[in-house]
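Q: Protein A?
A:
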Amino acid sequence: MKNFSTVGARLLVAIALTGGGAVSAAAQDGRCEFRANAPDQHTVARGDTLWDIAGTFLQKPWCWPRVWGMNRAEIADPHWIYPGQVIWFDRAAGRLRLGNRIDTAEPGTVKVSPLARTEGMGKDAIPAIPPAVIEPFLAQPLVVEADELKNAPRIVATAGNRVFLGKDDKAYVRGDLGGATSFQVFRPGKPLHDPVTKALVAHEAHYLGTLALQKAAGPGGDVHTFIVTGAREEMGVGDQLVRTEPMPIQNYVPHAPAAPVDARVLAIYDGVVHAGQNHVVAINRGKLDGLDVGATLQLYHVGQTVTDKTAGKGWHNLGNPQVKLPDEQVGTLFIFRVFRHVAYGLIMQATEPVVVGDVARTPE
């Protein structure tokens, strides 16, 4: 297997990104280097993820779109990669390309036929990240944005004055349904405040189950009749409804955000104090802040402010004795679901435990 120098990789990526013209800043600063031991090719296998394959070739997996030659439309709606296909490293162009494997009679050789990335999506396509970890968060929110619950419909009574409702029980709901007929039921938990501004951003969401509209309120009335279609926990009077959204399509690729992002970790799933690899966290930035699905952020512990005990002593005349230490990078976060002000991310790597208040920032 050939080795590939990082200097050469940097130059070739620059050529690929600029069409042979001026070297782009992103390539020039080395953010998209290939690994020194990058293989010539990788045959896609079941169980692979796009993140893992990208990490096989690249120092930083979120550089995948740059060296793959993807534009913004393809990042948002990518073509899929399937088991049995071959990712090959075009060293002359500094690009990764997709082909089909063609075995030859000559021992030890394999030919790869070029393949246009135009195949349709399918259930056998490899996922971007491990799907089993994030599936619960695609169907059920970890947090509910503050303004979403402000005027949310709520259960005001139960059939037979039941204290708690279970599957197939009847519930009476008051509020504007907005034309929807299927809802998830939540009991708002601890309020989540922005670690910097202290503004209320969201509430922890205790997911209770699902309701389906049986009969809408009649003329002059505002109470609707619902049936419990699924109960994860007991629900009752006062619990609130959020309309059920379609399951997001999992077609995304790792990439750096289009605009600078400076976020904080709002919450960790299941009330865990410390999070590590494959844990899900919520951050205080969303669509309105330029985040999209597949965006990758770096995680940092906030540098502490300490007293410089040497300041003002002898030749150490440094003025202010209070000094802030640099933020320390502790991991990588992959954004897989985005709302207006909040997003969910999967921790892909962590060198230290991640805690609420940690910084999530555009990759350097």
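Q: Protein B?
A:
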Amino acid sequence: MSNLSVEDAVLDGFAGPGGWSEGLRLLGLRDIGLEWDTAACKTRAAAGHLTIQTDIAQYPTAPFKGRSRRQIWSPPCQAWSRAGKGLGLVDQPLVHQAVHDLAQGRDTRAGLLTACKDERSLLAAEPMRWLYDLRPEWVCMEEVPDVLALWRQYAEYLRAWGYSVWVGILNAADYGVPQTRRRAILIASQERAVSAPEPTHAERAEEITLFGAGRNRWVSMAQALGWDHGQVVNTRGDRKTPGGNEFAADGPSWCLTEKTRSWALRNGNQPRAAIRGSHEPAPTMAFGNNSARVEWVLRNGTQKNAAFRPLDQPAGTLFFGARCNDVSWVCEEPAETVRITEAEAAVLQSFPADYPWQGSKTKRFQQIGNAVPPLLAAHIVSAATGIPVPATPMAAAA
């Protein structure tokens, strides 16, 4: 670590490809990430974020003592996941026990790990080891909503140690992210009283009142992807002969996670082509003025209960992974399907369209889906530090 400058850097555990890092960058802060996955480490390096590639469960806290006064955590959530075989669900009592023991200065992880059905379950207890040993000025933690009970256990110990703590569920769309991604959040500080970050957006636009300015409407998928309000998309594309249906291209997207894979398009447009990643060529798309209109929707999966979102709403949580759902833009007639691109998925997570994802195609999409939306991260850290979130094009969208 001698070649890394960690003073004044935020310790970012389970750092992933840089969602928290990009959020910190918006606030003029920086982090040093601890991350195991090689592809995510390469992405962080390409984006200019400091990283130590390591197994956090084996890494000692001592090198950070007196050098890192702030922490961020987004541990894996296998013990709370409803996906797959769900073996980790039975490990929840063991995770709670590990957190309790670590908060007393007792490291019982090795023994508890032998009883776990999923060896990854105890990683959700790792933050307590670092909190107990380092006692940071502030800490922010994020995970899926089902982890809220675990965050409340953390909060009990942090309050006993003199921290001001807020724990609850936040919706990323309330902070300008074009995605209704809900996450369990913990914010704690020894330096200031903390509360939930003040939302900047709402499902419906709010008017200015005597009590202050109203909130903007949630950012739609169309806004985030550069499809101007009132603009019409022609389903026939850029062809010599007339025809095709049309739709208004303004609305938000579903939440992105590691299971998201593709968009099903019933027509195309130039703004979409403009942000496509370099890995995939853009199809020919065009605007038109036909009176007939069709509405595009984002289908989040192919199962019977798959959710659908129109363009004038935010996206729901998008998933990418080995057991991926087919997330697609869907239009009944004419039927057309087009894969979501890295650039589009990144934008719906509030990353820059040209963020330098690394690794295989599967790995790149997994990173996008698993990342914390940077704009949400910035608002969470702002609540912990008092540093205001600067205006960004996406955050200012109405």
